[in-house]
Structures are given as structure tokens and as C-alpha cells.
Amino acid sequence: MDSFLMAMSNLASAWIILSAFAGVLWGIFGGALPGISPSIAMALLLPFTVGMEATNALVLLASVYVGAEYGGSIPAILIRTPGTNSASATVIDGYEMAKQGRAGEALGISLMSGLVGGLFGLVVLVLCTESLAKVALAFTPAAYFSLGILGLSVIAGLSGGSLMRGLIAACIGLMIAFIGSDPVSGVQRFTFGSEDLLDGVKPILIMVGLFAVTEMLVQIGEPPWANGGNASTKLTLPNWAMTKRLFKPQAIGAVIGTVEGVTPGAGGTIAAFMAYSEAKRWSKHPEEFGKGSPEGVAAPESANNVVTATALVPLLSLGIPGSNSAAILLGGFLIHGLQPGPMLFQKAPEVVYGLYGGLFIANIAMLLIGLVILSPCMWLVNRPKPYLIAFILALVMSGVFAIHQSIFECGLVLGIGVLGYVLRLLRLPVLPLVLGLVLGYLMESNYRRSLLISGGEHGIFITDPVSAGLLGLALVLTLYTAWKEFSDKQHAKG
Amino acid sequence: MNDALVDRISGGLGMLLATSYIVTAQSIEDSLLADAVGASGVPTGVGVVLLIASLFLFVKSLKSKAGKAQQQAGKTDEGAVKGGSEHPHAMALGLLLILAAYVFMLPILGYVVSVGFLVGAAAWFAGARRYTSLLLCAALAGPIFWFVFDWTLEIRLPVGHWPMWFGK
Questions:
Q1: Contact A178/B42, CB-based, under 8 Å?
Q2: CA B64 to CA A342: how far, in whole Å?
Q3: Is the pLDDT reported for residue A312 higher than 60?
Q4: B24-42 pLDDT, tens per residue?
Q5: Taking a contact as any Cβ pair under 8 Å apart, which residues of chain A between 213 and 242 contact chain B?
Q6: More confident site: A264 or A45
Q7: pTM of the model
């Protein structure tokens, strides 16, 4: 409780407030641009933090992270283009709601769920950093592999009613994930001699191609949008009844986001997909998912915003950056002569608690800035369809080029767009593909590391208690889904 | 296309992809640092899973009574969307060609000109016919996006061969 009060005492600092607002604004701007990941948005500001006071600099960087993770949901909802990897799950129902003329409602739910998630994550960070750090330490390679299996167990929920189609799509995602250097021996795989593929295919390229380019290829042949230019640009925040309805998916997102956040390397993308799938599983209206369900927006948004705070747990307590964004923040600490880890709380408690206070302000800033900018964003996407398609494509292609300044990647994204178009024709769901892509490296590298540790014994996945627990959970969830599908079919028949 | 036909095509393509993937995976040479699983082990496993899933889908589609009935009746549920283009796939291909032209032009004509072309051509192709607005959008798009990415975000964008052509 002392730490919580100390964090609150920093809220009155004008520089911290200014840093938090500036960081969130920059983060939302970067996150909303496809190709500018939270870590890139943070890295762009890193040089400017050198001359700043340590607490202000760290609040600025952490606020960029908060803003960028939230900002990714804006294009995901409005133009089916996730600005960040972790906003991919928000596309499913967010974009459906936008197509139904409910963009304001979807953005309002996303904003409030992001706020709930961010604040929940902050409370967890402030109160439980020490104990949760032990969870991160308990994760062996075997446990990471099982975490991947648990992630894949949600495929059934993302397959749109056909497990086999979902499985095929997930396999394609895994295949793409294997392109590049082998994680153990460094041998080139599936690169066909191309140096551009040595580092593999970045997930953001796949997501931008599959969601944005494919959508534009489909939209060009479809009639003008029904709401063309006249749709409401009013932001609608959830009313009391909706708030009550969103409580469960937000809680699911918060719990999953906490676990995934404290686990180095797991990240917001897996958390968002798992939260979506679990929210659907436990919803009273599972049939609405995929067709514009408010719960389908709330769960992934709360999950990926919880991660913005809980991802700092292993960084602050152990000095382990669990993601690219955390690594940039680590850079911010090092620039100011601070070494994150157990001693940080003894050596520079004012910086840590200042950061906590700054994160609180960053979440409030996210709400206030969101309230101001979302209506203009909706106005922008209500422009005539031909111009909108043209500008979306220009934005997407510019964002893709911005990642590595690579012409090859621009061409690759077009190829992925065609793949997405073919998948749509064949009615293969793209979300399991994205999940396979995200989990591929995590699973393979840790599977093989585990076998190296155990001398080739597969029993390690059962004897490791965390791994066994995760595998058991995956089994329970899969069996439950199978039973529910079977039971639903029986109900339909009879 | 009815569900059974879609499943048959998906299953067939999946089997083809899986087979070629497994063959390619098997041709990966392991280095001296290789572990027991090897660089090809996991990809081969995934290829086998894809093969089985595709085969299952293919066989299921052959057994589907509903699919057969639909096929016999010549019933299809796909075609142009009402009010949209009569040739949606041709439109998609056209847009893809514009995008490919943009990627081709980018290193030669530079970012500002290429984005101007992309915006103008894509908007015209999508149906914009007010030529003043069209030209204005195409002319402004390049400088605006350049301002956002190059000036604000300090991401260097290609200038093309212009300096070379003008002897700089």
C-alpha cells in the first residue's frame, strides 16, 4: 500500500503530466499508422529523452507504449487494418460493427475497455510486481512450448464453425513462421536463396497484407458503402447496461492479459486472441461473435492494454525485457544510469513510483485524447469510397515501407494480400493463420530447447509443473469446445 | 460456389501445398549444430498435419449430400454482389496491378511521385470521376505522406533517380 501511495504522490508533477500526455498522443499517432509498431514509436523518441530528467523520460516512453497499443485499435475498427499486432483480434468484431454503422459504439467500447485494462494492469503492476516476477521465473522452455499449445487450443473458437478449415489456416500460419533461419542451428529454411527472407516474415506484414490489402481488393468490386459520407461520427461510450454486459469479457481480458504480460515473450497479441476466444466461450451471446459483438471488442482491447502495464513486471523486478517495447524502455533506464532489477526498488524508488504515477496519468490521457480525436477519425473514414480506398492503400504501403525501407517487403505484402483474397474465396478463416504465425517461433524454439535440456525425452513437458498445468488447461479447453459444439449440434437436430 | 466444392478445392490445394512443403522441408540440410529434431523436423510435422486436415476436408466434401444436391441443381451462391461490379475478381486484379506498378515505380520515380500515382490511379479505378478533385488528391498525397513519414517520423523515403537524371 505504501508503494501505491508513493505512486499517487507523483500525480501532481506538471512535467510528469506533460510527459504522459505527449507520450500518449505520439503513441496513438504511431500506433494508428500501420507499420509503426509501439517499439518503433518509442525508439523514435528515445534520443530526445537523453537530456530529460529520468522519471519524466521513462514516463514519456511508457506513455508512448500505452498510447500505441491503444492507437492500433482505431484503424483496426475503422478500416480493418490493425495498427499493431495486438489489435488483430479487435478487427473481427470492431470492423463488423463499423460496417453496420456502429463505428462510434465500437470505438467507445475499445476506448473504455482499454482504460479498464490499462488501470487494472497498473494496479497489478504496483501491488504484485514482486510476487508475479516469480511466475516469470518459473517459465522454462517446456512451459513456453505448452503456452503455445494453450494458444493454439483457441483455434476452434476462431474457425467460424469448421475446425478443419481453422486447422488448415493455422498450419499455413505456422509454415510462414518457419521461413528464415532455423532457431537452433541457424540453417536457412524456405528462403529460396533470398536474403530478404533470412530474418523471416514479420507478423505485421502478414497482418497488414491479410487484413488491409485483402479488404481493399474485395471492396473495389463491391457497391458503395450504405452509409457513404452520411454515417454518424458521434462517439458513443457504453451506457450502464452495456457496461454491465462488458464486465465479463473485460475481466477475462484482464486476467489473461496479466498472465501473458508477466510472461516474457508472450505479448499482447496472444493475450488478445485468447481473451477473444475465452470471451466467446463464456458469453451468453456467442452467436454474435464475428458479426459485430461488443464483447468481441472489449475482451481483446482490455487484454492488450493490461499487457502495457504487466509487461513491465519482469523488466522492473528482474531486468528482463519481455518485448521489443520493454527493451526500448530498458534502453531508457540505461541511458539514465539505472539498471532495472531487484535493486532498482532500493536504489531509485522515486523513479519507479514516478513511473507508476505517470502510467496512471497516461491512461487518463488516453481517455481524454481518445474523446477528442475519435470523431475526426470517423469523419475521415466516411469520405467517398474511391478516395478512401486510395488513401488507405497509400497509408498502408507507406507504413510497410517505413518498417525496413524495403521494396521487397512492399511486394511481399501485395503477395500476402492475394493470399488473403484466395483464403476468402475458399472461406478459410484468417485468424487461426495469424495465431499460427505468432506462435510458430515461440513453440518451435522452445520445443527444441526443451528436448536439448531433457536429452530428447518428451516427458519434460509433463514433469515440468507449469508446462503440465498449461497442457492440462489446453486439454480442458479443447474438450469443452468439442463438447459444446457436439451439444449445440444435438440441440439443432432435435 | 457451394460449401462442398469450396471444401474440395481447399482440400485439394491443401494437399498439394502440404506435399510440396514436406518435400522442401526434407531437402533442408542440417548443420553440425543441429539437434535431434533438426531444422526440418517441426516443419515436416506441420506439413503432415496439413496433409491430414486437407485430406479430411477433401473426403468430407465428396461425402457431402448437400453439396452433391446443390451441384446437381447447378445452384451457386456466389457471384457479383448486388450493386457492385459485375466482375469483382477483375477489379481486384486491376487494383493489384496498380499496386504492383507503385512498387515498381517507387525506387525509380521516388516516393512523392509514386504515391501521387497510387492515389490518383486507385481512386479513378475505384470510380472517382471528378477530375479536379482527383488531380488535387493525387498532387497533395505525396507531399502530405512525405511530411508525415519523412519529416515527422524521420523515416527516409526513396527520392528515385531524379538526382541522377538532373546531374546531382
A1: yes
A2: 62
A3: yes
A4: 999 988 777 677 788 888 9
A5: 213, 216-218, 220-224
A6: A45
A7: 0.79
**Span A58-80, average pLDDT:** 91
For residue A317, what is its C-alpha cell? Answer: 523486478
Report pLDDT for A106.
94
pLDDT, averaged across chain A? 86
Kindly state the average pLDDT of the residues A21-33: 89
pLDDT bracket for residue B111 (50, 70, 90): very high
Give yes or no: residues B98 and B154 share one domain.
yes
Q: Can you give the residue range of the structural domain that contains A27?
A: 2-493
Q: List, as ranges, residues 166-195 from A with C-beta within 8 Å of B.
A: 167-168, 171-172, 174-175, 178, 182, 184-187, 189-190
Q: Which of B5, B37, B42 to mutate to test the interface with A (most CBs of A within 10 A)?
A: B42
Instruction: Enumerate the residues of chain A whose CB falls inside 8 A of the CB of residue B24.
Output: 190
In a domain, B92, yes or no: yes
- Work out the minimum CA distance from B63 to partner chain A, whole angstroms: 15
- Report DSSP state, residue B80: P
Q: B108 and B67: one domain? A: no
Same domain? For B161 and B121 the reply is yes
Is residue B98 domain-shared with residue B143, that is, in the same domain?
yes
First to last CA, chain B: 57
| Structural domains counted in chain A | 1
* Chain A residues with CB-CB distance to B35 below 8 A: 184-185, 448, 451-452
Q: Do A451 and B37 touch (CB under 8 A)?
A: yes
Question: If you count residue pairs, one on A and one on B, with CB atoms under 8 Å apart, how many are there?
Answer: 203
Mutate to test the interface with B, among A171, A391, A458 (most CBs of B within 10 A): A171
Q: Which chain B residue's Cα is nearest to A36? A: B153
Average pLDDT over residues A415-443: 89
Domain-embedded: residue B77 = no
Q: Which contacts qualify for B27-34: CB closer than 8 Å, 24 or more apart?
A: B28/A182, B28/A187, B28/A189, B29/A187, B30/A185, B30/A187, B31/A185, B31/A186, B31/A187, B33/A184, B33/A185, B33/A186, B34/A184, B34/A185, B34/A187
pLDDT at A2: 63
pLDDT at A385: 85
Residue numbers in B near A410 (CB within 8 A): 102-103, 106
**Percent of chain A at pLDDT above 90?**
33
Q: Are residues B51 and B118 both part of a single domain? A: no
- Residue of chain A minimizing CA distance to B6: A426
On whether residue B82 sits in a domain, the answer given is no
| Predicted local distance difference test score (pLDDT) of residue A217 | 93
Whether residue B114 is contained in a domain is answered as yes
| A301 neighbors A112 (Cβ within 8 angstroms) | no
The interaxial angle of helices B41-63 and B3-26, nearest 10 deg, is: 160
Q: B101 lies in which domain range?
A: 88-165
B87 chain-A contacts, CB cut-off 8 A: 221
Interchain proximity B145–A395, CB inside 8 Å:
yes
Is there a single domain that holds both residue B57 and residue B125?
A: no
DSSP of A411-440, one letter per residue? HHHHHHHHHHHHHHHTT--SHHHHHHHHHH
Decide which of B70 and A52 is more confident: A52
Residue A180's H or E segment, with its range, is strand A180-181
